[in-house]
Amino acid sequence: MSERIEKLLQFLQASPDDCFLNHALALEYIKAGKDNDAKLLFEHNLGTDPGYVATYYHLGKLLERTGAQQEAIGVYENGMVQAKAAGDMHSYNELQGAYEDLAY
Question: Which residue in 56, 57, 59, 68 has a CA-CA distance of 20 to 30 Å to 25?
């Protein structure tokens, strides 16, 4: 296990619902080829804080990569709603681009 993963796991022991830490760990899991572990963390983030916009793009890309296109489309759609509500147009545009690339 990488040193980064070990360190993030230690931090998460104290703050298991910290979306930033869960997101960072999920990205490390993706690098390590552990897509299922990453997916579980992204889903945990959405359950903990649906307004944590960064999760939608990365979860959508993971779903695309694993062949779950329809599920990815739904994630991008939900992410666009959350990004728009947060006034985060940069994230909205990224999500919209990913959505359009997949849906059309």
Answer: 68
